[in-house]
Specification:
This protein is of the alpha/beta class. The protein contains 16 helices and 11 strands. It folds into 2 domains: about 110 residues, Nonspecific Lipid-transfer Protein, Chain A (2-Layer Sandwich), CATH 3.30.1050; about 300 residues, Vaccinia Virus protein VP39 (Rossmann fold, 3-Layer(aba) Sandwich). Helices cover about 40% and strands about 15% of the residues. It has a 7-stranded mixed beta sheet, with helices on both faces. Strands 2-1-3-4 form a 4-stranded mixed beta sheet. The longest helix has 19 residues.
Amino acid sequence: MAPSSPATGRRSVADEVAPLVGRILGRSTDHLPLAVRAWDGSRVGPPDAAVTAVLHSPRALRHLLWAPNELGLARAHVAGDLDVEGDVFDLLAVADVVTDPGEELSLRLDPAAVLALARAARRLGVLGPPPPRPREEAALRGWRHTLRRDAGAISHHYDVGNDFYRLLLGPSLTYSCAYWYDDGIDLTQAQAAKHELVCRKLGLRPGMRLLDVGCGWGSMVVHAARHHGVQAVGITISQEQAALARRRVADAGLADRVEIRVQDYRLVADGPFDAISSIGMFEHVGAARTATYLARLHELLRPGGRLLNHAISRPDPDVDAQVDPRSFIGRYVFPDAALLEVGTVVTAMSRCGFEVRDVHSLREHYARTLRAWVANLQAAWPQVQRLVGPGRARVWRLYLAASAIGFEQHRTAVHQVLAVRPHPDGRSEVTATRAGLDVTAADPPPAGSAGDDPAHRPTTRR
């Protein structure tokens, strides 16, 4: 530990903070798994620590004192008062020691720890009012899952700049789990495989009408129209997504077959559709709106039409589906989101008149996708910070890395659920076997089918 100041006799910041860090991590002060460096220059922890937490300002302690949980730490980190030196995955490996296997990564200080923190802050002379909340924190108004509030939640996450998402996601501009059918493929190929997997499960054929709910930047509808000959409608409530998606559709020469709308699913009124894809949208619907969402999609499908719902889920059916609004994810990443256990989704579909035909876990695929996104983020870190600011860049790095670990350790799951609206006589129009529904190295997606961004390739109109 750093010695006390000889001039004042006051203990250094590191002296005061070390016992609290040890308490949080369940380690003695002499066996901390990381180092801590404070604004007064004092330091504690292993000299060769892979991770060093840097307290740049007394505000770091005040953030945690006023929100003694992961939200306080997140605010300090996003505001730049608390930084981390070292690999983000090494940091999360350290954080993992405070949880039991299978539980959510989280931090809540017990009352005794809060009291110890307050006493340390008083001795250091840094007590004070709560620091301002970082501007990157969501502040939604109104009743949850109204049209206006849902639009605000989507805008918070997606309207942060298309140039940023290009750097993060790569040429495919696809913000959902890829399908790594072969170890030798890259992220763009894996995203093409995911789109092809969805198309095959939906049984898409030329002339069919496809509705893609939460279409993002248009990659799925472009793929489906280009390689399966469908007439596609993509809907999103993100203005920035829609603007770029329309440009991508035009550049692909598919404007006669693909329409992009800024429209909420509740306002779609031009069914029926032969197929509906919902990829990475269901998490935003909310647990209380699940039945409404599925019933609306059921109404929009013709008898014999199929729905493919691709969504992140919680493994434990007894855990509240609603993301905690006081958590890092709930305030900075996905406000108002809900992650339902897949069995709950299947039951909800059945209650709405669907017949569930196939359930497919892609958990390991999402872990690999997230690590690829983190690598993209790290490779362009200076540019990312210029585009979205240091605070939001920190949010994304922490969120993506923590999510990757969550999928690897089965704290979080992701499933594709294929369902059909049967005919009144029970006919499903679904094949009796799974033949032709998968993507493999022996039967890969069509060449050049990545749904790639035309800004990164020559354009051929047709």
